[in-house]
């Protein structure tokens, strides 16, 4: 092993570059000796005093010192410890720059970590596959295919009031414990797609197994790739979980498939970015989030959506649902704000509705899909418009009605809402094992809006 001498970048030697730990602070390590051939985002291996190896990413450089953050714990890393960087020939270097993930179709049905290693105890995965860039740019906007036809999500309330097209990206805004995981499981099982890729970012360890076994179930898992980084892992791992899942979704999209990408949650992804940014010396800006978070977030979210059309004119699609944690109904929190601006619609889940026992606890009046009404027929649009109007009147008036302060016959609009809204609420209710196609959803709404006996 040798330390490479400085040489112009185009003349990269093949071998190993060695550095030494000069300092440790918080979550980061400073390294000397890695200059001239390494850059931000490159991955190095660091050897602890006990010989343990840990991978780490280079964050920024300060003068000649690389600041790195390990994927594992810092325990056993001390001053003078060795760090290694693999030097590749220029072609390999170009391919590997910024990190790649080798994705294999056999990932379907499996639970993996952000490095693509299986963590479900079901044995090894094939080591080969297609290299995918972890930080790939989104397809060129002008060349990108358009959104596909509407996609059947198998969940009535979404099929009716947030009708989605293939390649659309939605935000799912929810507090804790309102039924997010259950809804994601239902979507993975019920959606009319070829593959579902699910990223669990920063969940508690116990929840992962519960999600896979109870919410997803064997049927959902069979068509899913589940990428997991729990809350106790390093912020780099949590960040990579989002990138690895996106890269896997892109892999299937590039095969022309219809992919459903579910990410729970982008808030925890942003919190990981915040930890990384602050550790590498960035200043905190909006509520402690450094500016890089809001530069990075759109780059991730934009990668979902339509792919490039193939020779036959058809394109694969990534339809995506990104969950955002809203605590105490604070919808103006910076991550929620940024996400709302980037995506093509939002679905709001509310504790009040969950407490009333209606699941999925989605507030129809506050949810919106920007591609509706374009993807529904005129008759379907009229149905959802009428239903929304009834629900809105009902929301305004229900306290008065319950208190007996409203006298039937005073306002035909209110009378209609009193008659119809409970029936619509009944349609919005859906058990976790139940599936409803778009046609079934509209049939149910049609029947609720014109009950037998009405003209
Ligand atoms: N469709 C449904 N039908 C009946 N009950 C439901 C439904 N969805 C959710 N629930 C109830 O709500 C509870 C919480 O659901 P879930 O675990 O999916 O919420 P969560 O938002 O993921 O919670 P956390 O924030 O803790 O991860 C479930 O245990 C279940 O009792
Ligand atoms: Mg959950």
UniProtKB/TrEMBL annotation:
<dbReference type="GO" id="GO:0046933">
    <property type="term" value="F:proton-transporting ATP synthase activity, rotational mechanism"/>
</dbReference>
<dbReference type="Pfam" id="PF18269">
    <property type="entry name" value="T3SS_ATPase_C"/>
</dbReference>
<dbReference type="InterPro" id="IPR000194">
    <property type="entry name" value="ATPase_F1/V1/A1_a/bsu_nucl-bd"/>
</dbReference>
<dbReference type="GO" id="GO:0005737">
    <property type="term" value="C:cytoplasm"/>
</dbReference>
<dbReference type="GO" id="GO:0005524">
    <property type="term" value="F:ATP binding"/>
</dbReference>
<dbReference type="InterPro" id="IPR003593">
    <property type="entry name" value="AAA+_ATPase"/>
</dbReference>
<dbReference type="Pfam" id="PF00006">
    <property type="entry name" value="ATP-synt_ab"/>
</dbReference>
<dbReference type="InterPro" id="IPR022426">
    <property type="entry name" value="FliI_clade3"/>
</dbReference>
<dbReference type="GO" id="GO:0030254">
    <property type="term" value="P:protein secretion by the type III secretion system"/>
</dbReference>
<dbReference type="InterPro" id="IPR020003">
    <property type="entry name" value="ATPase_a/bsu_AS"/>
</dbReference>
<protein>
    <recommendedName>
        <fullName>Flagellum-specific ATP synthase</fullName>
        <ecNumber>7.1.2.2</ecNumber>
    </recommendedName>
</protein>
<dbReference type="GO" id="GO:0030257">
    <property type="term" value="C:type III protein secretion system complex"/>
</dbReference>
<dbReference type="InterPro" id="IPR040627">
    <property type="entry name" value="T3SS_ATPase_C"/>
</dbReference>
<keyword id="KW-0067">ATP-binding</keyword>
<comment type="similarity">
    <text>Belongs to the ATPase alpha/beta chains family.</text>
</comment>
<keyword id="KW-1278">Translocase</keyword>
<dbReference type="GO" id="GO:0009288">
    <property type="term" value="C:bacterial-type flagellum"/>
</dbReference>
<keyword id="KW-0066">ATP synthesis</keyword>
<keyword id="KW-0375">Hydrogen ion transport</keyword>
<dbReference type="GO" id="GO:0008564">
    <property type="term" value="F:protein-exporting ATPase activity"/>
</dbReference>
<feature type="domain" description="AAA+ ATPase">
    <location>
        <begin position="166"/>
        <end position="354"/>
    </location>
</feature>
<keyword id="KW-0547">Nucleotide-binding</keyword>
<keyword id="KW-0813">Transport</keyword>
<dbReference type="GO" id="GO:0016887">
    <property type="term" value="F:ATP hydrolysis activity"/>
</dbReference>
<dbReference type="InterPro" id="IPR050053">
    <property type="entry name" value="ATPase_alpha/beta_chains"/>
</dbReference>
<dbReference type="InterPro" id="IPR005714">
    <property type="entry name" value="ATPase_T3SS_FliI/YscN"/>
</dbReference>
<keyword id="KW-0653">Protein transport</keyword>
<dbReference type="GO" id="GO:0044781">
    <property type="term" value="P:bacterial-type flagellum organization"/>
</dbReference>
<keyword id="KW-1006">Bacterial flagellum protein export</keyword>
<dbReference type="InterPro" id="IPR027417">
    <property type="entry name" value="P-loop_NTPase"/>
</dbReference>
<keyword id="KW-0406">Ion transport</keyword>
<keyword id="KW-0963">Cytoplasm</keyword>
<comment type="function">
    <text>Probable catalytic subunit of a protein translocase for flagellum-specific export, or a proton translocase involved in local circuits at the flagellum.</text>
</comment>
<keyword id="KW-1005">Bacterial flagellum biogenesis</keyword>
């Amino acid at each position: 092993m040798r330390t490479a001498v400085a040489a112009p970048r185009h003349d990269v030697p093949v071998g190993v570059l060695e550095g030494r730990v000069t300092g440790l602070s918080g979550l980061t390590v400073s390294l000397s000796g890695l200059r001239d051939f390494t850059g931000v985002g490159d991955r190095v291996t660091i050897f602890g005093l006990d010989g343990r190896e840990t991978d780490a990413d280079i964050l920024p450089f300060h003068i000649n010192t690389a600041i790195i953050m390990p994927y594992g714990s810092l325990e056993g890393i001390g001053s003078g410890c060795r760090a290694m960087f693999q030097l590749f020939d220029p072609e390999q270097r170009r391919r590997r720059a910024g990190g790649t993930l080798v994705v294999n179709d056999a990932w379907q049905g499996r639970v993996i970590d952000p490095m693509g290693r299986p963590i479900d105890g079901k044995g090894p995965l094939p080591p080969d596959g297609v290299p995918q860039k972890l930080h790939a740019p989104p397809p060129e906007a002008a060349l990108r295919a358009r959104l596909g036809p509407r996609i059947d999500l198998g969940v009535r309330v979404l099929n009716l009031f947030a009708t989605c097209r293939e390649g659309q990206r939605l935000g799912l805004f929810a507090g804790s414990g309102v039924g997010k995981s259950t809804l994601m499981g239902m979507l993975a099982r019920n959606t009319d797609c070829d593959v579902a890729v699910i990223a669990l970012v920063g969940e508690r360890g116990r929840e992962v197994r519960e999600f896979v076994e109870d919410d997803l179930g064997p049927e959902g898992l069979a068509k899913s790739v589940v990428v997991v980084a729990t809350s106790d892992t390093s912020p780099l791992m949590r960040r990579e979980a989002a990138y690895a899942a996106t890269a896997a979704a892109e892999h299937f999209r590039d095969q022309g498939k219809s992919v459903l990408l579910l990410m729970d949650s982008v808030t925890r992804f942003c919190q990981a970015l915040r930890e990384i940014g602050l550790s590498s010396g960035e200043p905190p800006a909006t509520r402690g989030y450094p500016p890089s978070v809001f530069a990075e977030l759109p780059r991730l979210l934009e990668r979902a959506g339509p792919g490039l059309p193939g020779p036959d004119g058809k394109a694969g699609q990534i339809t995506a649902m990104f969950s955002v944690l809203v605590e105490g109904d604070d919808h103006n929190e910076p991550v929620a704000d940024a996400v709302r601006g980037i995506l093509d619609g939002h679905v709001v889940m509310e504790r009040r509705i969950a407490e009333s026992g209606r699941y999925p606890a989605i507030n129809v009046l506050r949810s919106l899909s920007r591609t509706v009404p374009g993807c529904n027929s005129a008759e379907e649009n009229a149905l959802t418009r009428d239903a929304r109007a009834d629900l809105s009147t009902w929301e305004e008036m229900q306290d008065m009605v319950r208190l007996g302060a409203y006298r039937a016959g005073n306002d035909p609009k209110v009378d209609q809402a009193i008659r119809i809204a409970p029936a619509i609420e009944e349609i919005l209710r859906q058990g976790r094992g139940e599936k409803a196609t778009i046609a079934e959803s509209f049939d149910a709404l049609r029947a609720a809006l014109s009950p037998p006996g009405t003209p």
